[in-house]
Each structure stands twice: as C-alpha cells, then as structure tokens.
Protein 1
Amino acid sequence: MKAKLISLLLTAVLILSTACACVAEEYIINDVDFSRMDDAQRDNPVFYEIFVGSFSDSDGDGTGDIRGIISRLDYLNDGDPLSGKSLGVEGIWLTPVFASPSYHKYDVTDYYTVDPAFGTNDDLEELVTLCHERGIRVILDLPVNHMSSRGSLFRNFINAHICHNPANKYYDLFTWIDASAGKVPAGRHFTRSPAAGIMYESNFSDDMPELNYDNPEVRTMMLDVARFWLDKGVDGFRFDAAKYIYYGDNAKSADFWAWYTGELKKVKPDVFTVAEVWDGDGVIMKYAGIMNCFNFTASQASGIIAETANKGDVNRFTAYTESCISSLKALRADAANVFFIANHDTDRAAGYLTVASGNMKTAATLYLLSPGTPFIYYGEEIGLRGSRGGANTDANRRLAMLWGDGDTVKDPVGTTYDASKQTPYAVSDLIAKDSSIYTHYKKLLMLRKANPEIASGEYHALKLSGTKLGGFTATLNGSAVAVLHNTTQRDMTVDLSEIEDLPCRVLTDSVGAGEAELTGTVLTVPGQTSVILR
C-alpha cells in the first residue's frame, strides 16, 4: 500500500493559481475528515511571524505596512481549509507596530498609536477583524522592558532629575543610579546623562532606557497598554526580552509576569501569551509555568531540530520532545511546546539548512508535525535567506519578502546582505509547483489539520534501537496517530510488528522526498521522508 501524499486535493485545485476556478466541494485526506481540526486549531495553532516593515507594501513607499498584510490574507489563510489555495496558518505574530523612530520598532515612543509608516489604528483593527473572520488569531509584539529615549516619557524623566524633583511622577519611571556612585551593578549597562547627573539602565542600547517595574505607576501604565489593545480585539501578545524585567533576577522577573498575565486574564480569560526567554531549558522553565515560552534549545543552527534534520538520530529528537512536554505539563496543564527554527533575531534557517540539500524541508517536517504551537518566520516557506554576516546587523535577518508580483517592499535600513546569495525564487515561482518548499509547508499544515492528534494529543516517543529512524504516537480523545521520520538520505525499513506500544499500523500519508510503502507489516520509508500511520 502506498501513501497518497495529499494528492487528491492538489489534483482538485491547482495550488493558488490565479487562473484556478476548480474547487473541491468536499475533501478528505485518506479518510480523515478536516472537520476534526477545530480543537487543534483553537488549542495549538500554527503561528506566522511577520516583520511588518519587510512583508508587503501597499502604498509604494518601500515599507511594508498593515494594509499590505491585509492584501496578503488569501495567501496566509483564505478562511476555507478545503480550498487548498492558502498556506493555512492559524495565527499571526506582528512585530511591534507602535510609533517608534527605528525601522524595527522595538524602541517605542507611543504604545497607543500605530506607527504612520505602517498605517493607522483603524487599519490594525480592520486586520484583526478580517483575521478573525478567517479563524486567524492576531498577537502583537509588546516590548515592555524598555522604551525609546526619544519619547516624551523619557524626556520628562530626565527633566525631573535636572530639576532635582523626586516628587515628580516621572522621576522613577526608568531604572537609574547616581552618576557619582562610580560602580555599575555587575553585568548591567548604564548610560550617563551628564545634564541630569544620573546613569540610566540601557542593557540593549543607549537609545532604549529600561522601565522601573518597582514603580507601581510603571506597572499600571504598561498594563493599561495591553488592556487597550485587547479591547481593540487582539488575541494576545508576544513579550520581548521577558527575562530582563529585572536583569539577572529570574525569580523576580517571573513574579512580575505572573502578576501581569494574571491581570490580562481578568480582561480576556483566553488571552494568548508567549514569551521570549532566550536561554536554556533550565531558565525557560522558570517562566513556562506562567506563560508559553519559545523553545530556544530546539532552534537555530545549533538546535536539535537542525541537528536532526541534518541526518541526525530522530530518536534523540523525539526523546527530547517527550521530556520537554512532560516538564511543561508538570508546571501547567495547558502549557504548549513552542518550536521554531528561526525568527527576526536569528540567522535564517535556509542559510544553514539549505533547500537544495532537502534539510530545510526535513526540519520543517520535524517541528510542524510536532505537538504544541509552532511558529513559522515569514519567508521561511520560500527559502528566504539572511544572516548578520560581517556587518553584524540584524537588518540582514529581516529582508524583504519576495513575492514576484510587483510588490514594492524593500529591504530595511542598514541592510548589507549580498543579494547574490539570496534565493532566486519568489512566491510566484513556487506556489504552483508540487515539489517546492512552499508546497511542502502547505502540505505539512494540511496534514496537521487533518490529524489533530499531532498538535494536541498525548505524546509518546517510540523507542527504536539500532536505527536513526524514529517517531512518536499521539492520542487524542481515544484516537491515535503515529508519525515516523527518516532524516537520512537512504531508504530505511522497519517491521511495525516489532515496535512496542504502536497502536497504528495503517499507512495514510507520507511527505518529503519520496513515497513510503507498507508491505504486510514492513514499512519502507525513503530518505528525507516522513509518514503518518493510523
């Protein structure tokens, strides 16, 4: 028996071709009804990170904007899981959209106003409304650790110190020490302000002073910001630099987030929160009992996903995943594992995994066919490249999306990336090709929807010895699936009857470089291919 590789839908509708008029009235992947996806979509959606200024430009000024995102909703999710015309993401993470003097917007001057370069507050509310109509959640990147030194709040803070007025409500808005103190707290960075006679904390940049969360007014101020946007309909937030609220004090920072997220849940009980705690698992777990946290152990070139995709041992990967999930669930019943391979702060995965080697597709399969809430970085699905390089600039990691349809979005200020190293393919080149990296991503999201056990089921790593072939079972509401991965470049064979605790023996789908085959109980999985058993 050979798996059909979602071929029925790809035959019924040509993948997002502008000339396509053929739409299937009903579609089932190998007898698995799409209607079963609802719980998985609600509990463990697939998010798509958009670096707003680099995604899509609606007004021809070269800067991506919110109306550009609106124009691309059919690309992201057209609201019809049966159409086969969109990527199929279920959530969008927008990097900061607030008023700011920089291209990246992590140095906010006004949290209540969308930066004019990106549009208006009305544009953002329209985007949220349209996303909700399609079942897409929208979360905003909320950098609460620091603000911009160019904003009125910081100017008022400096003026209060120039006037030596401790009674001024701005006097302790930011963290500071007396300039005459001489010694700076270990590991922290402070910037001198000669006029005010102080040094203010600025661990990320001299232009980004850090707020003082020992001040109750600061806590109230930043809580009001989040409440404002929840009232506008956003579904939650990604919290930037979460462990730095109190630099070097994870316990105190975690206590802050427990208070903050607790207050947000009073406003919106199902608020979605995910934190950037860029550290090892030991530190991440200090926060994971409070809110979801990105899994940095698994990400980037040195992470276990890339290691496994590069002909690594799948059994090591699944054992790690099981251990991670077990630790998370012990902290919080609804905790989700948050896998990703790259984001706006890291080198792009297509640079070190590469599409040509097949490793990029394999890595995508490993993390998107895993439990929890995975995050795709925009352009990942077309093999977009970008790295800091010798210029050491993050702008090179945030390059313009390649649409191939005349979109005028440009690379951000400060970009030095060698254009000759960029992928030669745009969305328009890949979207109608069955073998493309884009189509691979879409197939993975379709399989994930059709098999909600993968996203939300009880996970158990299969224990296969003497082979790099590995996988897991996932059980949800009495229904089980098994997923097996072959990350090597050669065919691998396994007798399913010899695998302990394997309730699934029927091959339903395969995805990757080849087509799996089941003869009796003997399963043959081609190189760089994964299979689903029911």
Protein 2
Amino acid sequence: MVYKQFRRLALCLTVLLHGLLVFSAQAALLQPDGATPSYALDTYTSYYHDASRALTLDEIRKDTSVFTPVKQPRDLNFGYTTSATWLRTELANTTPDTQQWMVVFAFPFLDHVTLHRVGKTASQSFESGSAMPVEARTLGRRQAAFPLTLAAQEQVTLYSRVETAGSKMLSYDLMSPEAFYARNDLATFWLATYFGVLIALGVYHLMLFIGLKEQVFLHYALFLFSFTLAILAFNGIGTLIFWNGIAHEAARLVAIGFVLASAMATRFAQSFLNTCVYCPRWHRLLARWRSVCWVVLVATLLLPIQPALRLMDATGFTTSLLLLLCATYGSLRRFPGARVFMLGWTMLLAGACVFALRNQGILPANFITLHGIQIGSALEMLLFALALASRFYRLKQQNEKAQADAMNTLKSQEAVLERQVAVRTAALERMAHHDMLTGVLNRNGLEKNARAALKHARKTRQPLALFMLDLDRFKPINDKHGHAAGDFVLKQIASRLQHLTRHGDHCARFGGDEFIMLLENMGEAPAALNEMRARISHAVRQPVKLPNGQQVSVGVSIGSSVYRVSNHDTASLEDLLKEADGSMYAAKPRSFNGQPDHV
C-alpha cells in the first residue's frame, strides 16, 4: 500500500516537473503598446531546426516543447545550415484598440521566409525572401517584412519558417508602420548614396585609365565594379532594381561578386604597391593566389549555392589576410603607398568585424553596426581614390623634374582640353534645358525650374502663377512667308516674353507656338494676374518686322493657373499645366472673335 502511494507521488512529481520544464522552455509573451514604435523580438522567440525540411505548420504546432528559447540575440545566428528553421513568438494586444505592426527581418540575405499568423479565430500566411521575385513578396522591400494586425485584446502566435543557402542570421523586430517606413527610407537613401559613390568612383577611374593608360586605375575600377555587384546582391538592392527576373540566383551573384573582387583586389595590390619592383616574392605569391581565385570563380558557377558561398567565405578571408600581410610587410619596408593601402584595407576589415559582432549580438543594432561593411568599404574606397590621386600627382612631379619642357607643353594641352570640356559641358547643359531656336527654357528646363519654384513656394508660402500662351494666326505666317520667317517671329516673341520676367521667373517654349511663363510671388489679388495677362497680350500682339521689311502680327490665347500653398497640397507642374491648358482653350474662342484673351 505504501509502495503504491509512493509510486503515485513520484508520478505526480514527474508530471509536475515536466510541466515546469515545458513552461520554462517557452519564450516570454510580448505585449506591445502603441507608445513604443519598435520591439526586438529576439528574446521573445524560441526556435526549432527542421532537419527534414518537410514539417508543416500543423505538425509543428502539435508539440511546441521542441522549441528552444532565445536567451540573447546571438542565439539567432545559426551560420550555414541545411535545415529549415522555425521561429515561434507570442504576442498579445492588451489594449482596447486595434494595433498595426510590421514584422521585419534585419538581415536581407534570406532566401525564403514564410510568416504564419495564428490566432484563436483565423490564421494568415505571408511570404518573402531574397530569392523570390519582388512581385511575389508580401511587401516589395529588400528585407523580408510583413504586415501584422492585432485586434483589441487578441493574442496571436507567429511561426516563421526560414530557408536560406547563406548564413542564417534571424534577428527580427516588431515595428510600427511609421517607424518601419522611416527607417527603410533612411537606409535606402544611404545605400543609394553608397552605391552611387562606388559606381562614380569606378567610372571615374576607368576614364582615368582610358586617358592615362595607367593599369592601376583599371585594376581599381574592376575591383570597385565587382565589389559593387556583390554588395548589391547581398543587400537586396540589386534584385529590386536590376535582376528581379533572376532573383533565385541572387545568392550566386553574391558569391561571384566577392570572388571576382578577391581576384581583382590582388591585381590592384600588385599595381598599387608595385610589388614586381619592390618585392618580387609577394608579387609571385599574389599572382598564384589570383589563379586560385579564378578556379574558385568557375566553381561558384558550377557548385550548389551553399558550397559556393562557403568557398566564397574562405576565399575572401584568405585574400584579406594575404593583402593585409603584404601591406604590413611593405609598410615595414617603406614601400611607397604601403601604409595607405594597409590603413584602407584595415578599414574594410574593421567594418566587416563590426557587422559580424552585431550579428553575434555582442554589439547593439544601430545604423553603424547594421551597415558596417558599407561604411568600412566606403572609407576604404575613398582612401584608395585619394591615394591614387596623390600617387598620380607625385608621378607627375617626378616627370616634371625629369622632363620640364615636355611637361609644360602637356600642361598647356591639358588646360586647353579642360577648357574645351568645360565649354562643351556648359553647352550640353544648355542644350539639355534650353530651346535651340528661341534660347528660352525647353520642357526639361521648365520641369527642373518648376520643381525648384514649387519647393520655394511651399517654403515661403507665396503663390506661384503659371501662364500658358498659344499664338493665334501664326500658321498663315509660315504658309505665306516661309518657315524662316516663322522662326524669326518665334524668336522675337520669346525675347519679348523674357523682358517681362523678373529675377526668379521663368519663360519656356512648350511646343511649336506655345510658351509657358512661370512667375513667383504674384500675390493673391486677381488684379495682379489680369495686369500680367494684359502685359503679355500687349507684348505679343505688337507687330513684328521681318528681315524682308514686311510687318506681321499674331494674336495670343492665354490660360493661367495659380498654385497656392495649403497644409496638405500635392500640386505638381502637371496639375498647373492641366489647369492652365483648360483655361487657355476656354479663352481661345474669345480671342478668335476679337474679345479679350483672358479668363
């Protein structure tokens, strides 16, 4: 009898202990409120690795005890795995209001992410990932991001299934839509600036190579282009802009870009440090390693994606180590440019280390740690660009000492070329924004100046007036006196209109015999508009004396529109043109009948 009671007590204790273990294994429940714009979900999450990659949501929900709670953010950095990883997070809206949130994965290089929202009454599923075309994603963003609605007093469970051939860094956040879009816009701006700098530097040095025939500029440009390809694919920007049709190959593009960058980095180091002269042994070693890089590049095209990425990591690490050792050796031996090269390469490696430490959870997530590679590489590229410019200047000084007369001649030729380029650039700029016949703005010039004028109007809160002019009785002049006479009349009319403008006003030829006048600070009174309309009409209707001595005159139909700043205006040049066009055509019948040409 005592034995049976003891067994029952032991069984109860075992069940209780198991329950306590299961309860302790569950991640904490997050209760977001509307006052906090962002929550890190890492420590509210538990994870499970599905080695079979075949479990469904219903199967994974049957036994939640298999999930392991996340104790610190670094627990969600799983490196390279072949299994599918499930994340489980519980949320509860304890407020009386419906809440709108965004679930955002910080790492953009995740092939497929499926988010299941499981509630008491309904479930939803969303999909995204870097290997999916943009139009197939729940939100067309470079990161996996999903909308989430929490009804009042509702508790839901999020199950996220992640599969990726690359390294698995699964840190993710719960953000308000406003905070998400603000952060996304800021990140997009800086990434666009970053890529713009890289591409501009690459094109600039490629042009320097074409002009100067110095191999170091070509090697640097190729290094920049290959590195840019890799970072574009790695950050997801490339899929959004360039290769959406082959999004499933984005991971392979990362491997190709970084391996190609490794090969070109060794070639650039040889040229920049002039290793063939100062250290032939290092020159031969880098050449042999570059041959290995070419073999690895072929392998990345043939191997499955995950082995290709692992091979890319090993190649990149070895290349970085070799180049840093080479630069250190050159710095100790006082090779020209070796210290600058070592400093630049150290900046890139420091940025990569900051990014890696953030992914490990050692450093906090902020703009610098999230974009460590971009910041480090941007500083490195700019430093190398300055070093190349300095090196070019030193070479030029040496040539000046050796060949003073020849260099003076070259300088004069360069000055002439620079002036010609400046003149040609100014001419091209004018051609792009001005009408070749009349000299006033063309459509491009009008759009450019209209944007600035609208911005100024919003800032000063002063009205902006637009007048659209259509010349009447102009076609008979072409028919009777020829197109040369018609062109002469257009130039005279344009000149008169230009004389009516003030500083800050703009006049443009909008079509064959149509003109636009954009006038700032016109005031609110209709009398000011009518007075200006009358001045325009009077100036246009004045007779024009043709080169053959004959006099002709034209009429004009004038339409106008006024942009007045409001608190929620979205007016654009197109809106002003549309309003003025309707006004002009309403005035045209009266102008044909000899009535005043205004509305």
Protein 3
Amino acid sequence: MSRVKEAFQENGITIENVPRKGIKLEASVAQRNDMYNHMQELAYSIPETKEYRKEYILKTLFEYSDNYTVQLFAEDLFVSKKIISRDLKEIEEFLLRYNVRLIIRRNSGIMMKGNEFDVRQAMISHYNSLWWYKKYDEKPDEVDLRISRRAWTYMNQMYGDLDLIEMQKALLLAEQELGFIWTDIAFSRLLEYIVVSKRRIQKNWIVETANNHMLLPLEDIYIQAAGKLLERVAGKKAAVQEIQYLAARIYIAETVCPRISKNSGRFQVSVRRYLEQVGYITAQKDFSQDTELMQKICETLSVIQYKENYNIADWNDSNREAKKNISALYGVCLMQMYILEEGTGLKFRQDDIAQITIFVKNYMARNRKEAVFVTATDAESAFYQLEKLKNAFKNIHFLETVHYQRFNLDLYPDRLIISSVDLKQKNAEVYKINKHVNEEDIARLAREFEKESECRKSWRKLFYDELMWEISARDKADAVGQICDTLKAKGYVSEDFEEKLWEQENRTATSIGNRTALPHVFDEHVKKEFIAVIKLKLRILWDHEEQAEILFVTAARPEHIPEVSGFILEYKEIYSKDSKMMNLMIGGTKKC
C-alpha cells in the first residue's frame, strides 16, 4: 500500500486511511483522469500484464489469418502455456457475447469461428473498450460536426491507416440520397462499421449468413443505399450478404426523422396493452389513445426485432441517463415489460427499456395538466409561492400567476385553478389553498391530484415487518442466494423461486439507478405475495459497472403488478416518512 501511495503522490494525489470508513482519495477530476490514463497506459504497455497479453492475442486473431498456437503466443509473450490458456478462456467468454467461438486445436492453431459480421462487431467492441485516453486531438475542418473530438481521436488512432475523410464523404452522400439525418451517435457508429468493413473486405473476409439463418427483409431503399455505400468505400461491388447486413445497420440507426417501415403495425395490440397498464399506474389515462406515442414505441419494437434477427450489437448507454434522472418511472416501465415480452416474443435490453421510458416521460411532460395560480399578494411573494408549487408538482405546468382582480375564468377553460382566495366559482376545477402555500396545502393537493392512481396507495399490503433486513454479501450471486434462503426459511417462497429470479435477471438486469435494484418474480402461481427490502452492508456490482446497495425483492401475481409499481413510484417519499425504512437505510435494523 505504501508503494501505491508513493505512486499517487508523484501525481499530486493524496491517499489517506480513514478509521472505520476505509481509504480516502483526494484528487481533482483532472488528476483522476491523468492517473487513470497513466495506469491504463502501464497496463497495456507492459508485457507482464494480463491486459497486454489479451490485447496482443485479440489483435493477432482479428488482424492476421495465420493460425497461432498456444505455444507461439507463449513464446511471443514470454509466459507459460498455462497462462496463455487462462487468458484464452477470458477471451473466449468475451467473443461468445457476439456469437463468435474460439476454436483451439492442439498442435494446429487457434481461430475464431462465426459469422464475419459478428467478428466485426466483437472487433469494434474490443477496440472501444481499449479507449481510455482522455486527451483529444484537434479535428480537421472537414470532419462532420457530429463526430466529437473524442470519437475523431479514437478513430484516427485505431484506423489511421485508412482515409477516414473519404469514407465520411461516402457516408454523407448515402445520408443525402436516403433523405435521412443520422444522430451523432448513429453517424459515428456507421462510420466506424464501414471503416472496419473496408479493412476486412480488403483481406477477403466477407460477411456470410451463418447456418442458413432466415433474415428479415428490408425495404429496397436501405438495400440500395447499403450497396452504393459499400461500392464507394471498397472500390468494388459488394457481396449480397455484405449489403444485407449493412442495410440492417442503416435501418436500425437512429435518425432525427421517422424511419421508413411497414412492419411496426404488428405490435400495436401489445403496445396498447402496455400503455394502458403504465397509464393506469401513473394516472395517465390517455397513453394508449395517443397515436404518436403508439407509433414511436411500435417503431422501436421493429428496430429491436431487426437487432435480434441480425444479431446487431448496438448500444448508446441511454439507460444510465434514464436511471439517474427518472429512475422511478424507469422501474415502472421495466416492471411492465412482461406484457411486451409475451406479446412480441422479443427480448429487451436496458437501453430498449430506457428508450420506451423516455417516450413515456416526454409524453407526460408534453401533456401535463395546465394550471393557473390565483393570488391576492404582491408579485414577489406570488413568484415565491409559485416556485413552491412547481417544485412540489412536477407533473403540472403552471401557465401563469394572476391577481384575483384581473382573473376571468372564461379565459382559462379546462385548466386547473389553484387559488389563495375564495373565488366562489361554480362548475370549475378550483382548488383553494392557504395564502402561504404551506405543507398542509401541498399534501392535500397531492391527494386531490393523485386520486386516480389508487395502485400508488395499496402497496403497503405487500409489506411485512420481518421482510426488512440487512446483509453482507460478496457479490450478486451471494446476495441472491442469501435472500432466497431467508425467504424460503420464512415460508414465503418455494424451492424454484431463486431459479425464476435468475431467469428474469438473465433476460434484463433489474437495476434502476440510484444504487437500487428490483429483482422480481411475476407468476400466476405465486402463493404469498410480498415486497422485501434488503440493505446491503457494502455495495456490490449488480450489472456491469452498476452497483447496488438497496434491493426490493418482489413476488407477485400479474394482476398485482400495479401495486408493486405504485411502490416504485412512491419509494423516495417513503424513505423520508417511514421510520422503519429510514432505520433500514441507516443500518438500524438487525441482520438476518
């Protein structure tokens, strides 16, 4: 530890041991970035490190056709064959995510086996994972504005042997011919894919359809655009499957205008059911009646279908943003995904759920109830009171503040009227409050505005005092195992509960941000329904880089999912008001 401290101190960073708390690192953002760059540079430049070996092996497999043996890698890297074999196991796990197998034949060689399209995706993912450098190059003037300095620096360093500007011109021409405008992320991703494709085609590594897999058809406009784009980039007419897979990537790429699709209508029944449920939980009755919202989600499902069919690995990490800013709504949308899963047969990733959540959130923002605040006070006091109301009711759009002497109800049809004076209006939706807009007013208005969302009030019947406890766990598997054992011992779940819980986690990770996760089982055969609250003494990795310290473990029949979802919408307020949960959050309950 002393050597670590010395290394950090050389970079101006102080490390201290804080009694009973742990190790504290004091550094600015710039210092942290510089130190991270330094450590990454060391890891990937010193032959003795695992990172260096894995990078060397993967680059060799991606870039060269000669079959390397374990012995040759061991000699090149000055390590034993046993160490190389261990590295290859980790590499194999990585490649399998993209349906690429690592074939190791004794005394013959090591090779990758899989569709060339999947190999390219694995290659792009690997190169992206290596990108740790935080200092970016200046962009030439001709680089499209959608490509950030970071993206340009990355591509220039990874693929600098190719003419990136010329390939960008080909992509811009395709965009013009299609009449599309790709988003910044989509434009950069398409550019990198065609750059990698050119490199692979030059080596005669051509995309083919694996195992006679039936590919979904695409509109001619996508096929023609992909064919022309590849011909411009590679300098020759491309193979049919090369065109087909690029066309699929063009189809699923995000644009600022609607996609050209004739297939999304098949999802309308499932989407309507889904929106009806989400609308019921959030007290938004008009969800399923909104044609634009329906169409956006149907188009998203069509894109997901093509991603599955073509095995396209595409990501934008939108789930991180959604979990950070609208975690409760994300949790509600996640809880209802079983409706879309059953109705469409699709599998949903976290980015997919985030996209649907954002659609729902945007609809709610655009269709907020509109209100007018009527007062008898001065402008400054009225402004202050209005800010109280705005902060308390995010789902209401306050149009303006009006002094009662200038107020005319006829000018505000179909608006909520919140007034600190007695207007004595008949046949109007007027809510009388105290002139100081105190907490009692806000609480009463909250009850009035949320009358329709009964599921947000009935979740407590799923709580039991004995299902709130704290545990110490090494990792996710350990936490799930401990929780399931306790629930079985208390008689709440059957022997197969843990297996069903993992089935859901393997379909879609249940983290919702704010270090919270919702592992759940929704099954018509659940006998005893509950919501268990478990606090982890130390945070654990729940999904990739996402940690968890609070788990809401749930078992419920499908008809009671709204109650569970109602709890998710309420949970932030619950923590601040429920003393038992407050005790749990600060570790005041006993361990189980």
Protein 4
Amino acid sequence: MKLFRSGFWAKAVTCLTILVELALLIAFSYLFSAGILESEYAAIFVLVLLLLNLMAIVIAVNAGGETDYKVSWLAFLGAIPVFGLLFYVLFAHKFTSPSQKAYMKRYDEALLKRETEPSTLKALDALNPSGGRIARYIERSSHGALYRNSAVTYFPLGDEAFPAMLEELRKARHYIFLEYFIIHPGIFWDEILKILKEKAKAGLDIRLMYDDVGSLATIPSGYRQELRKMGIKCEVFMPIRPFLDIRMNNRDHRKILVIDGHTAFSGGINLADEYINAVPRFGHWKDNAVMVKGKAVEGFTLLFLANWAASFDPKGKIDYDYYRPETFIDEAGGFPSSEGFLSPYGDVPYDDWSTGAGVYSAIITGSRRYLYVSTPYLILDSRLRDELCQAALSGVDVRILTPHIPDKKTVFQLTRANYGPLLKAGVRVFEYTPGFVHQKMFVSDDSLATCGTINLDYRSLYLHLENGLFIAESPVIMKMRDDFLESLSRSEEWTYETWKKRRRGKRAFWAILRVFAPLL
C-alpha cells in the first residue's frame, strides 16, 4: 500500500511498458534484418506506428487542458508510439465522460443555491477593484459567492488549529461535515473520532468523506463500515478498482470541516499526526489553517454538499435550506460584524475552468508592492512562471517559500529545477530549513490573500478536487503576512549563483524532469 501511494505502481507499469515496447522494436528489427519477415511487413509496421502517433497527437491537441500538460504528453507519446495512446486514454485524457457530465450537473445545482449580494460586490469594488475582479471571476467560474458578516481566524500551524477544532466540535448541536484527503488514526484523528462518536449517539447528522488514494496507506480496508457502525455517514471518494477503472488521477484533495453551518475550518492540514507535529516526519511540519464564522461558512457547506450530492446522492434528497447559516446562527450569538470580504471557492477537473490557477494568476498580476507565496511544490506551468517573472521584473517584491526537507525526492528536485528562471528575473526564493512546508498561501499588498489546499503543481491546479478561501481587505491578511515573514527568518535564501552551482551535475536530469513535469 505504501508503494502504491508513493507512485511506485504507476512508475513500475510505465517502465515495464517502455521495456516491452523496446523489446518489440528490437524483435521486429532483428526479424527484418534476418530476412525472416518480408519488407512489406516492415512497411506496414512503420505505417501503423505513424498512424498511432498521428491519432494520439490529434486527440491530445484537441483535448482540453493546459498547454504544458499537452506538450509533456506529446513527448511521452512520441517516445512510446505503440502503447503511448493507450496510456493517454487511460491516465490523462481531458475529455469529459457522461458520468462526469452527470456529476457536474448535480454539483452545479448545489452550488447555485448561493449567490453574491450586489451590495457586497459593489462595496469590494469601491475598496479594491482588483479584489472585486477576482471575486467576480470566482463566482462566474465556480459559483463561489462573496460574503461579509464573517470572521476569520488564522492558525500558522496545525498544532494551534487542533485544539480550536476540538473545542468547536464539542459545541456541535446539529450536524458535522468532514471532507479530507487523508485520515490517519493517531492523536489528531482519534480525538476527533471520539467526539464524532459521541455526537452520532446524540443523534447529530455526521458525514465524512475521505479520498481512497490519499488514505490508502493510513487506514485499514473496510474502515468505512467501521465508521458507519458508529452512526457516522461515511463515504469514500472514487474507490480504487484497478481492474475496472484505472483512471485515478482525479482525487479529492480538499480539507473542509463544517459545524452547524456557522463555523468552518479549512487550510492545508489533513487529519494525521504529522500535520500537528505530534510525530516527526520530514522535520518540522509547517502548515496553516483558517477558522471561518458567519455567512461565509455557507460557501464551505455547499462545497461539501455539492460533492456529496454529485458523488453519493444522485436522487437529490438534500434539504439545502436546513444547512444554511441562518438556521442555527442564533445559537452561535448571531452573525459577526464584517471583517473584510471572504469567498470560499472550489475547483473540480470536469468543468471548463481551473479556478485555483485563475485566482493565483489574478493575485500575481494584480500585485503592486509585494507578493508572498508559500507552497510545498513549485511545478509551474509557463503562464504562472511568466507572470511571477513579470511581476518581479516590474518591481514587485516577489518571495516564494518552499521546503528544505522534501517529502518526495523527485518532486523536490523538480522544484529546485524551477528556481532558475524565477531567480534570474528577481524573484526571491527561500527554503524552510527546519523541515517541510505544506501550506499553500498567497499574500499580496496587505489587501488580498488566499489559502487552502491548492499546490503549485499540475495535479492540484488541473486534476484534483480542491478548495480555497479568497480574502480581501481583512485584518487577518496582516497576520498571514507576518507568519510568512517569520518563516523566512528561519529559511535559507537561494540566489541565482547558488542555483547555478547546485545545478552542476544535474543539468540533464533537471531538464528531463521539467519536460515531464505535468506527468509527475
């Protein structure tokens, strides 16, 4: 299971396929040269290869998706003409299947239950036109609404979010929703599960979604049934069925906790002990989380219910009005006074827009004084790379924080390979020397920010279900900024000269990694 989760299975199948194809080519070459096969067979063989390549190229170019992703697959298809097309169809194609279209129909129906109040968007436009454009983009690309009358608390570490999550869970009176990529029995999950069991016995509506690949190596098989016996409505997102469906690229990478419609948590932390530094893994684990109270919680509630309805409730039996913030807000003391503007947003791989990439792009291009970015992986497409470089070249103070201790060595090398063009343009890059950075955060000009689950890599930006929180004109942005700067004080800064020295002996390896980056 650990080998599967690390990607060993996919790499092994790819290597085996390449070896089989090489063996076939060598065998055919020998048969032709030895005269065992006639020349017309050679011509037919070459013609078949050309037709397969042409078919693969036509399919890949006309499929949806980001350009760099297509280019990498075209290189792969060219290297493996016989089996490349089969690999593309099984693992990478961006054509929407009928089942995915049905998913999106149910998903959109749930999210259309919310909409931005015109006065809210007008108020943000007046304060921050760039923020207003981003909010409008979120609404049109993913049906994410903009809210006031909401409060947000920022936790710079999972260690600090953990007790707050337990405290709020104990207050639950009606329902609890959890959607996570990874759950792993231990201090963190066991304490949460203890509360969930008590609340389920008391009759609360407890629902849990976890991703099958994300939790493959952390929980036993049949764990869903164990949780259901406790009274928890548990579902597994896209269970692995390798002999029936090996298209497993689209994973549920979200992290959402909703309590009674008036309190929500999100951020980078999964429900496992390394996220609260209870067990050592890759040094000190730097992650973050946010707690939202008030009207904006509706955004997280509907993101959860949309995925639940689309994945597990095709008959549409959900009473969305019951789960609105207004239903139980009096028990929480009413709506808080407005602390800026909040827009929870989601991203799914089956629609026409990559909302997470769009939000990041808009914040980059809208920055005027500074832009601070924190990410565990720096696997950039050409658009985001060029926008970061252009921001730095135009005088914006662009700084990026990445890990110093990796969780995946190949991806870590690819992250470092991408430093060069950024450093040359004036972007400042720092590695967090105490350990691993898992937070995904953009902060700009003390006025705009976003944090959530979306890494700067192709899987998060284009293949997974993700979520984030867009924040505008809120005092919490300064806390996020200060946390970023405090992390830089414990980090090693790279220069372009440092990068060129580290590149020695790795130039060819890094170049190959960058070609196939979208496939990792």
